[in-house]
């Protein structure tokens, strides 16, 4: 049996992101809540979103792009956002995650004026008094507006979770709205992640998954 070709090297700081080759020969980078990932390779960035939001951002002229996956806009109470030089606990929150994603694309050679942005997620899958998904969508829109970045495409809100696959080299996005049977699993994941956010301080390198 022929050996699978080795995966292309990742940019520094993203070695912990799970990557594998699917039966079609595509390289998949799987993002979990709190992750963000930037690549210059021909890869598919893959995640499942409930109330969380993902921003897909790329520089189309240079083939540099990335995706994040965050639960809440920013820490509450006495928490403080602290973004570091690599993916860390702070990227669980949108305020740090968006900064990190954009900065790493620029660091890899991207130019701000050419950035193309698409946003996904923010479904109301958590049966709580506060619509976490709506807060996330409002936050990411306002953040991008303040940064002077235009959203070229979006699929947000509603009550369904989403399976999102982003192709940074072409900018294509494949979105599948998941059924109610998937909603329970995604909502449970969101609830567990939300509890972890409440109990865990922002500072430091703490893996929740």
UniProtKB/TrEMBL annotation:
Catalytic activity: L-glutaminyl-[protein] + H2O = L-glutamyl-[protein] + NH4(+)
SUPFAM superfamilies: CNF1/YfiH-like putative cysteine hydrolases
Gene field: cheD_1
Function of the molecule: Probably deamidates glutamine residues to glutamate on methyl-accepting chemotaxis receptors (MCPs), playing an important role in chemotaxis.
InterPro entries: CheD-like_sf, Chemorcpt_Glu_NH3ase_CheD, Cytotoxic_necrot_fac-like_cat
Coiled coil: none
Keywords assigned: Chemotaxis, Hydrolase, Receptor
The enzyme's E.C. designation: 3.5.1.44
Protein's GO biological process: chemotaxis
Domain of life (superkingdom): Bacteria
Family: Belongs to the CheD family.
GO molecular function: protein-glutamine glutaminase activity
Pfam families for the chain: CheD
Statement: the UniProt record of this protein carries the keyword Hydrolase: yes
Name assigned to this protein: Probable chemoreceptor glutamine deamidase CheD
């Amino acid at each position: 049996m022929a050996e699978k070709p080795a995966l292309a090297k990742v940019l520094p700081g993203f070695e912990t992101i799970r990557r594998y080759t699917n039966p079609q020969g595509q390289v998949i980078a799987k993002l979990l809540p709190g992750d963000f990932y930037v690549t210059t390779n021909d890869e598919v960035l893959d995640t499942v979103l409930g109330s969380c939001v993902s921003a897909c951002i790329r520089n189309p002229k240079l083939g540099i792009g990335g995706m994040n996956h965050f639960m809440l806009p920013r820490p509450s109470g006495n928490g403080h956002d602290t973004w570091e030089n690599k993916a860390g606990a702070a990227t669980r929150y949108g305020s740090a995650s968006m900064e990190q994603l954009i900065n790493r694309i620029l660091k890899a050679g991207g130019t701000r004026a050419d950035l193309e942005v698409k946003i996904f997620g923010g479904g109301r899958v958590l049966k709580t008094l506060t619509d976490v998904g709506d807060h996330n969508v409002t936050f990411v829109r306002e953040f991008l507006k303040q940064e002077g970045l235009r959203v070229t495409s979006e699929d947000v809100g509603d009550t369904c979770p989403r399976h999102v696959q982003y192709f940074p080299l072409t900018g294509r996005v494949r979105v599948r709205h998941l059924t109610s049977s998937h909603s329970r699993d995604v909502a449970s994941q969101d609830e567990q992640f939300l509890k972890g956010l409440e109990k865990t301080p922002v500072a430091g390198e703490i893996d929740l998954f």
